[in-house]
Amino acid sequence: MGAEERGTIIALRSQEIGVRELARVLTRAPSTILRELRRNGEQLGRGTDRRGQMRSLPSIHLRPPSANERLLPGHWPGDLIRGAANRSAVGVLFDRRTLFLMIVRMERATTQAALAGFSQAFEPLPAELRQTLTYDQGKEPVEIFFEYCFQARDEESVALDA
């Protein structure tokens, strides 16, 4: 395959043109186009990857330096372990400095259940131990500041002592 055809592939892929359409335009077999795309490092898969698409959350890059340095307690990574058919879930939280672990039982594997379960788990802790929560969504972690969690719960008219 020549440089001109490779340039055409790059230009058309940036317009989200599919492999079969590329093959038709270049009068090549789809397998040739796939091989060229793989050779140049393009990740090809089936369907759209929808993991990690929570919106309206602060970027993980805004996390305070103390969370990365693990100097002070109060910065919590969190994850969700889903049960069969997403009918149940367990939230796992641990403090990055002290390595204190909390396991939170949830009735369902939904965003609302995770928010309610994690918020309830953090309620008894003093404010200095509730700095940040880095929630792992599978594809990439997302930073959730506690103010966001409590604001979301306040919008649901749930009283919290923050």
Commentary on this structure:
By secondary structure, this protein is an alpha+beta fold. The chain folds into 2 domains: 3-39; 60-155, no CATH class. 35% of the residues lie in helices and 19% in strands. The chain is built from 6 helices and 5 strands, in the order ααααβββαββα. A 5-stranded mixed β-sheet has the order 3-2-1-4-5. A hairpin with a 4-residue loop joins strand 4 and strand 5. It is elongated. The termini are far apart. Mean pLDDT is 76; it is low at 139-162.
Summarize it.
By secondary structure, the protein is of the alpha+beta class.
Beta-strand content estimate:
15-25%
Strand order of the largest sheet: 3-2-1-4-5
Measured on Cα atoms, how large is the radius of gyration?
Answer: 22 Å
Helical content stands at 25-40%
Give a topology summary.
Blueprint: H1 3-14, H2 19-26, H3 30-39, H4 65-69, E1 75-82, E2 89-94, E3 101-106, H5 111-122, E4 132-136, E5 141-145, H6 146-155
Parallel strand pairs: 1-4
Antiparallel strand pairs: 1-2, 2-3, 4-5
Helix pairs in contact: 2-3
